[in-house]
Write a structure and sequence with these properties.
With 301 residues, the protein is of the alpha/beta class. It has seven helices and 13 strands. It has a single domain, classed as Spore Coat Polysaccharide Biosynthesis Protein SpsA, Chain A (Alpha-Beta Complex). The strands form two sheets. Strands 1, 2, 3, 4, 6, 7, 8, 9, 10, 11 and 12 form an eleven-stranded mixed beta sheet that branches. About 2% of the residues have low confidence.
Length: 301
C-alpha cells in the first residue's frame, strides 16, 4: 500500500500510579512532551496523520497544548474514549469507573482511520528507529492477515523505582508472534529479572525476552475484529468492575484462530517511559543526551 500510514496515540489514561496527566509532562529542552517526540519521529518516518484518543474532561487543555505546534506539520484528528461509548444494546453498568482498556480505545478510531496505522501509548518514548521500521512495514507489508508489533528486550523496559507490567512474547523461527502474556510485578533483583505469576510465585525470566510496549502495526480490518470481540468481552465480563479489554488479547485471539499473523519488528533505538514520578528525571536526562548526540533538534518545532 502506498498511502501514508496513520499514527494512533492512546492518550486517554490519566496515569493513576504517576498521579496526574503525564501525557503532557514536559521532558524536552523546551518543554516538549514524550508524545511530541513520537510525533516528530513519525513525521520523519513518513506517517501522514495523527489521531489522538483522549477524554472529554481534558480535551480543551490537550488541544490548547498541541494544536498550535502540530497543525501545520501533520493532519490531526481527535476521538474520545468514554465509559458509555458501548455497542448498541449495551448499557454502562452502575458503578463502573475504570476505562474499558486499550482495545476499546483503539475501537474509538474506527470512523476516522481507513488506512494502515500504528497504535502507541502516549507516555512511552519508542525511539526513531521504531517508527521507521513500523512505517516501512505499514507501507509495504501490512495486509488484512498480516500485522506487526515492535518488540523490545525486556531488560530495557524496566523501572528502577518500582515493578512494571509487560506483555511477554514468544516468537517463532520466522519472527512471528506466537503468544503474548501479560505479566505483572516485573523487576530486577540482583542479576535476575522476575515476575509474579497468578499464584504470587516469583518466576525468573531471561533479560532478552521480547516484550510488547504496545507499539502495533495494523490493517484497518482490525476494527471489525475488535467490534465482535468487544461484544463477546462485554457479554462475559461487563459485570466485573475492573475488567479490561486489552489489545494484546485481541491480537493473540486472532493469531490462535489463524486469521492473522503478526511480525515482531526489532528496533535498536531506546525505549523509556514514565511509570513513576521518579522516572521523569531519568527520561529528561536520556532525551538531553539524544539531543546532544544530534538525534533530535534542540527545539522540535
Amino acid at each position: 500500500m502506498s498511502k501514508k500510514p496513520t499514527l494512533l496515540i492512546l492518550a486517554a489514561g490519566m496515569g493513576s500510579r504517576y498521579g496526574g496527566l503525564k501525557q503532557i509532562e514536559p521532558i524536552g529542552p523546551n518543554g516538549e512532551t514524550i508524545l511530541e517526540y513520537s510525533i516528530f519521529d513519525a513525521i520523519r518516518a513518513g506517517f501522514g496523520k495523527v489521531v489522538f484518543v483522549i477524554r472529554d474532561s481534558f480535551a480543551e487543555e490537550f488541544k490548547t497544548r498541541f494544536e498550535s505546534k502540530l497543525s501545520d506539520k501533520i493532519a490531526i484528528e481527535y476521538v474520545y474514549q468514554e465509559l458509555d461509548k458501548l455497542p448498541e444494546g449495551y448499557t454502562l453498568p452502575e458503578g463502573r469507573e475504570k476505562p474499558w482498556g486499550t482495545g476499546h480505545a483503539i475501537l474509538m478510531a474506527k470512523d476516522v482511520i481507513n488506512e494502515p496505522f500504528a497504535a502507541i501509548n502516549a507516555d512511552d518514548f519508542y525511539g526513531q528507529e521504531a517508527f521507521q521500521v513500523a512505517a516501512d512495514f505499514l507501507t509495504s507489508q501490512v495486509a488484512e492477515d498480516n500485522y506487526s508489533m515492535v518488540g523490545y528486550q525486556l531488560k530495557n523496559t524496566l523501572s528502577e523505582f518500582g515493578t512494571v507490567s509487560r506483555g511477554i512474547c514468544k516468537v517463532d523461527a520466522d519472527n512471528k508472534l506466537v503468544e503474548i502474556t501479560e505479566r505483572h510485578q516485573i523487576a530486577r533483583t540482583g542479576d535476575q529479572i522476575t515476575f509474579a505469576d497468578d499464584n504470587g510465585n516469583t518466576v525468573p525470566v531471561d533479560d532478552d525476552t521480547p516484550a510488547s510496549m504496545n507499539f502495533w502495526g495494523f490493517h484497518p480490518s482490525l476494527f471489525q475484529y475488535i467490534e465482535s470481540q468487544f461484544k463477546a468481552f462485554l457479554d462475559e465480563k461487563m459485570h466485573l468492575p475492573k475488567s479490561e479489554f486489552y489489545i494484546p488479547s485481541i491480537v493473540f485471539e486472532l493469531i490462535q484462530s489463524g486469521k492473522v499473523k503478526t511480525e515482531v519488528l526489532r528496533a535498536s533505538s531506546p525505549w523509556f517511559g514514565v511509570t513513576y514520578p521518579e522516572d521523569k528525571a531519568y527520561v529528561v536526562e536520556q532525551v538531553q543526551q539524544l539531543t546532544q548526540q544530534g538525534a533530535y533538534p534542540e527545539k522540535l518545532w
